[in-house]
């Protein structure tokens, strides 16, 4: 009798289950690998993004640091700048631009406050300037000196030392051109701005050489007076752009006008032309040959003190 082979259905079923498990595990592995790869990619992208953010933040912080350092240095340089008067002289100085506006408008009122600006043109001279400085010092008042480069060079080191003395005493230093030559500055009585600028720059350079590279002045006086010449509009625009002032005058001792006068006559003229004005810009000269101006100064100063004027400088 033939033996019949028994079919093991349990083993076959087990094989099917095992194959199914393998398939599930394989699919799961693929999914895990895919998801894992995707997760790793996302993490890498996040890290790179954060790294880029940090780079940008560090860059911005560095730019801000550089900007702050630049600003600090600019502030330090600004503190070193000396405009017209030394630091001690600032308390006696007045805004020259405001005075220039007043002079131009012919408005010499000042809300009841009387102020006088003693101004000296064409220095520095080695003969008259020392006498003027002596009187100013004795009376404890300050003045504004409008200097010409040619006279500074003419006086050599002594003239330069006088400029330093003016500055150290708290007086204001202003530019009155180099040559004082009308033909150069105003050919045919009309401003030549290029020649004018070149001429004034020579004196600016001399003043920086004497008083140091941080010195500058924003106050000028046109030789002959701004009021005397044609075609001054380009200069006005330039001064406004540079925050500078051209200062004329509304009173004078006439030490450069008409016949020669003695000290008494000069003082009387100065007093007369100052009458009724709360703001007085008094024109005088401390150049060579103006010894009588220095001698007239005590009487002039006394008059203004007696009449309640404060002495100011232009800066």
Structure, explained:
With 315 residues, this protein is of the alpha/beta class. The protein is built from 9 helices and 12 strands. It folds into 2 domains: 2-78; 82-314, TIM Barrel, CATH 3.20.20. Strands 3, 4, 5, 9, 10 and 11 form a 6-stranded parallel sheet that branches. It has a two-stranded parallel sheet with strand order 1-6. A two-stranded parallel ribbon has the order 2-12. The chain starts with 8 loop residues before the first helix and ends with a strand.
Question: C-alpha Rg, in Å?
Answer: 41 Å
The fraction of residues assigned to DSSP E strands is: 5-15%
| Strand element count | 12
Determine the fraction of residues in helical runs and give it as a percent range.
40-55%
* CATH fold name of the largest domain: TIM Barrel
Uncertain spans: 1-7
CATH superfamily grouping of the largest domain: Glycoside hydrolase/deacetylase
What is the number of helices?
9
CATH class of the largest domain: Alpha Beta
Quickly give the CATH architecture of the largest domain: Alpha-Beta Barrel
How are the SSEs ordered, and which strands pair?
Layout: H1 9-80, E1 82-83, E2 93-94, H2 96-105, E3 115-123, H3 129-139, E4 144-147, H4 149-168, E5 172-175, H5 182-185, H6 193-211, E6 215-216, E7 219-220, H7 233-241, E8 245-246, E9 251-252, H8 263-274, E10 279-285, H9 291-306, E11 310-311, E12 313-314
Parallel strand pairs: 1-6, 2-12, 3-4, 3-10, 3-11, 4-5, 7-8, 9-10
Helix pairs in contact: 3-9, 4-6, 8-9
């Amino acid at each position: 009798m033939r033996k019949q082979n028994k079919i093991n259905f349990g083993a076959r079923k087990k094989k099917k289950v095992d194959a199914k498990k393998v398939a599930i595990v394989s699919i799961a592995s693929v999914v895990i690998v895919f998801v894992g790869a995707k997760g790793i990619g996302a993490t890498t992208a996040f890290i790179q993004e954060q790294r880029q953010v940090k780079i940008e933040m560090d860059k911005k912080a560095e730019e801000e640091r550089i900007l702050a350092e630049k600003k600090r240095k600019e502030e330090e340089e600004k503190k070193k700048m000396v405009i017209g008067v030394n630091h001690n002289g600032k308390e006696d100085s007045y805004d020259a631009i405001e005075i220039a506006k007043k002079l131009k408008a012919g408005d010499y009122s000042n809300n009841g406050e009387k102020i006088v600006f003693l101004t000296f043109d064409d220095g520095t001279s080695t003969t008259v300037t020392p006498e003027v400085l002596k009187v100013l010092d004795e009376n404890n008042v300050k003045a504004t000196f409008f200097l010409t480069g040619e006279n500074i060079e003419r006086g050599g080191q002594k003239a330069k030392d006088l400029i330093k003395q003016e500055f150290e005493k708290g007086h204001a230093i202003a530019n009155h051109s180099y040559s004082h030559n009308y033909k150069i500055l105003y050919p045919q009585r009309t401003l030549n701005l290029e020649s004018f600028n070149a001429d004034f720059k020579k004196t600016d350079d001399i003043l920086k050489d004497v008083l140091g590279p941080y010195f500058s002045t924003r106050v000028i006086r046109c030789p002959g007076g701004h009021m005397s010449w044609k075609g001054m509009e380009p200069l006005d625009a330039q001064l406004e752009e540079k925050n500078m002032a051209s200062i004329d005058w509304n009173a004078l001792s006439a030490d450069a006008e008409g016949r020669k006068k003695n000290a008494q006559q000069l003082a009387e003229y100065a007093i007369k032309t100052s009458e009724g004005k709360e703001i007085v810009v008094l024109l005088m000269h401390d150049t060579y040959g103006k010894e009588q101006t220095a001698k007239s100064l005590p009487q002039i100063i006394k008059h203004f003190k007696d009449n309640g004027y404060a002495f100011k400088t232009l800066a």
